Amino acid sequence: MPKLDLSQIPFKGGSTYPGKLAEAMAGRTSQALGDAGGLGQYGVNLVRLAPGAQSSLRHYHMQQDEFVMVTEGICTLIDDQGEHLMQVGDCAAFPAGEANGHHLVNKTEAPAVFLVVGTRTETETGYYSDLDMKVTVDVSGYIFTCKDGSPLSADQIGE
């Protein structure tokens, strides 16, 4: 049946970020709606941010487009142009290869929710605007390194 029952789709928390960088994702959970619906060409996730939580570290994608739409509450989009208040119905698009580091932060006292839709590719490279870090993704998983490909130091990941 094409209609999804959101009450049957589990919430997932946590992060793939290395070391203590993962702690930055406290208060963020998501539901993998696209996976639950059997979609394979693009991902669709409903992301919930508790007050003070953020969606990710500020990043941009080289191979994958990304689209977000706020569905509940108020988020602050922080990108290379500054801060932008996003309310219910507001949308933002991040084309693949555009070096505009972005993330959403909940700066309010109430929960916020947004829908994120993104391309699925066999490989991906992402860069983190506020850190000397990149991620490469393939069938073997996530590999975090410095932007030049050298290993991250314990200091960089807070260990």
Describe the protein in words.
By secondary structure, this protein is mainly beta. 3% of the residues lie in helices and 40% in strands. It has a five-stranded antiparallel beta sheet with strand order 1-2-9-4-7. A four-stranded antiparallel beta sheet has the order 3-10-11-12, with no helix packed on it. Strand 10 and strand 11 form a beta hairpin. The longest helix is centred in the N-terminal third of the chain and has 4 residues, at 33-36. It starts with 27 loop residues before the first strand and ends in a 14-residue tail after the last strand.
Question: In a nutshell, what does this entry contain?
Answer:
The protein has 159 residues and is mainly beta.
Question: How are the strands ordered across the major sheet?
Answer: 1-2-9-4-7
Number of E strands = 12
The helix count comes to 1
Structural class: mainly beta
Poorly predicted runs: none
Largest sheet data: 5 strands, antiparallel
Strand content: 35-45%
Shape: globular
